[in-house]
Structure prediction request, 431 residues.
Amino acid sequence: MNFQRPKGTNDILPVVESKHWQFIEEKARTLFSNYHFNEIRTPIFEHYEVFVRSVGDTSDIVSKEMYSFYDKKNRHMTLRPEGTAPVVRAYVENRLFGPEFSNPYKLYYIGPMFRYENPQKGRLRQFHQIGVEAFGSENPATDVETIAMAMDFFKQLGLQKIRLVINSLGDKETRENYRQALIDYLLPHESELSEDSQRRLQENPLRVLDSKDKRDQQFVAEAPSILDYLSNEAKFHFEMVTTMLDALKIAYEIDSTMVRGLDYYTHTIFEIMSDEKEMGAQSTICAGGRYNQLVEELGGPETPGFGFAMGIERILMVLKAERVTFPKENTVDAYVVSLGKETNAESLKVTQAIRNAGFSADRDFMNRKAKAQFKTAEKLGATLVLTLGEQELADRMINIKNMDTRIEKRFILSDIYNNFSKIYDEMTQEN
Ligand code: ATP
Ligand code: MG
Prediction:
């Protein structure tokens, strides 16, 4: 029997961890909304074909990493390994390209993704991505706006040591020309390549450039540059992208060997990496690019797209490595110390009244001694502690202490019920 969590998955625990997750997610929601990206939520599983068609059957994701199964009616299903294909599927299925929708149509998603990987630090089987997609604009300004949003996001989180790397995969014409040049270059070295790359050389030679195998890397380093094969149109697009990045003073490097692991990219691709050593081979925290054929691939009208995805677990690792401090955990405004069994119901009423007045509150449920309850209140960082003993209850009074100033006052219970807000102000005013 195995009652442990599956390999490559995590429990995200309160208080600190889940708070950090919420912090990241909220930052993303606010920022993306400022850029007029709106949230979409798609199913966690999709038909297997959605990913084969889009991510590509020679990709590592489809060929090795998918959690696929047949349901009871023998339908081939897959737990989503990435977010773009499902969002494109939803865009097409819900006809979000119609004239009643804004164009470009800008979306974001947050949620778990599933890949059967070798779990390591920053590499999980259930991991979480925040991703965005912009449909309908061919304009290189869309590429740059979206990249700028990702950079803004990391800046807002307080990251310093990050680097933007870009490349262009060009259009169909570019790819065809380059593919041949790459085969011509790699073929004489075929037997020196890793087994995976020997296979890739036939199926999808661009994939060789993405190899993490040491045996391939020397050949990758000296491979012809795709940038020398860009068609005029592709070259113009890429030049516009770099010009606009310069205009926004966003620093970048060009890496002509960067290809990305998914088949659907065209033109601009980019990665944002951390320079923190402890990230190792998991240093990419954000990756994406343009995909001008994908919507058509999944049965929609010809529609260009641009998007990225970032890994939340990796962002958290980088934040830790860079020693970024999170905002102080939120504390409770009030803690109700409840003394003696008789006060149980009234304490509950008091706690609810505080919450209903818009404050955060908690109370003792374990009938602990006064000292232990005050300790808990301190641990929770309570601003005020309200003490209700049997005598107070009989007098219809309650004692309130400001934990900072140590000032104590007695109030009539009904005042708590009528206007806790006023009491809170009175108790927390300076001097
Ligand atoms: P890698 O080269 O590290 O395997 P990838 O190219 O497969 O990454 P993408 O599919 O582009 O990654 O996903 C975008 C981002 O999602 C990555 O940059 C990373 O931050 C995160 N990510 C991808 N796979 C995992 C995983 N297995 N565990 C945790 N995060 C991941
Ligand atoms: Mg991968």
Notes: The pocket of magnesium ion (ligand 2) is lined by residues 60, 261 (CB under 6 Å).
